[in-house]
User: Which sequence fits this backbone?
């Protein structure tokens, strides 16, 4: 009797998937559910449905993938907004003596972000207060206004930046430490940044617009600053799904 009740519940949920255009998945899941016992049904109820529901929600918000990635549970944990470590300043590495330590920290950062499709990560985001950043700029992005120009993955040791003009713009930002949220931040649009690469060589790069914004965002992490602290118009700080439906966001993308 109990099982029948649970089955009825699950089938109701599965049918709701059909209504949201997920017919193939719901149909095959329903067939499987009928063949297996209560433990499988419970598993379907708690995992497959909730994940699919989340995917549908983000799809309806106009995203081609999840609005924020789900971290692998075995990976080093990414600290979230509110964790006091994120507000501390990070120490530079002594090079070349500490290059082996750079590689150790970098490996932790890679594990933490494996498969997450993020733009950048700074070491303090996994609780390591050292000046190390990994950054890869995509040509396009579902949420961020890019320049259509991809930049290769850069591993930056002890990075610094300076403005090359007084020009600034205001654009949307997000952060793995502030999952599921976005806000508008004013940044310099033309900068030069310098860092040591993994070979211990000093590199200098000029950056514009989104590239420049991402660099400033990551180096802020090394100084204990998170983007929500820089949002001047606090009405623009909110959940990604809400923001992407807002007229402010659509206006910024030329959609209205
Ligand atoms: Zn960030």
Assistant:
């Amino acid at each position: 009797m109990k099982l029948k009740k649970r089955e009825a519940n699950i089938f109701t949920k599965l049918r709701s998937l059909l209504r949201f255009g997920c017919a193939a998945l719901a149909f095959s899941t329903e067939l499987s559910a009928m063949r297996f016992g209560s433990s499988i049904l419970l598993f379907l109820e708690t995992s497959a449905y909730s994940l699919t529901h989340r995917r549908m929600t983000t799809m309806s918000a106009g995203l081609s993938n999840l609005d924020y990635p789900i971290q692998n549970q075995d990976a080093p944990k990414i600290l979230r907004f509110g964790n006091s470590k994120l507000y501390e300043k990070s120490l530079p590495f002594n090079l070349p003596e500490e290059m082996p330590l750079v590689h150790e920290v970098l490996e932790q950062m890679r594990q933490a972000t494996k498969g997450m499709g993020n733009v950048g990560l700074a070491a303090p985001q996994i609780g390591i207060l050292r000046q190390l950043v990994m950054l890869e700029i995509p040509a396009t992005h579902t949420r961020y206004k890019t320049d259509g120009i991809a930049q290769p993955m850069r591993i930056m040791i002890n990075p610094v930046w300076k403005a090359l003009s007084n020009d600034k713009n205001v654009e949307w930002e997000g952060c793995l430490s502030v999952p599921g949220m976005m806000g508008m931040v004013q940044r310099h649009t033309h900068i030069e940044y310098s860092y040591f690469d993994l070979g211990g060589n000093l590199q200098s790069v000029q950056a514009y617009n989104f590239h420049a914004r991402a660099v400033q965002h990551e180096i802020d992490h090394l100084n204990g600053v998170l983007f929500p602290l820089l949002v001047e118009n606090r009405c623009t700080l909110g959940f990604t799904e809400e923001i992407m439906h807002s007229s402010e966001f659509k206006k910024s993308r030329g959609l209205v």
About this structure: The longest strand covers residues 151-163.
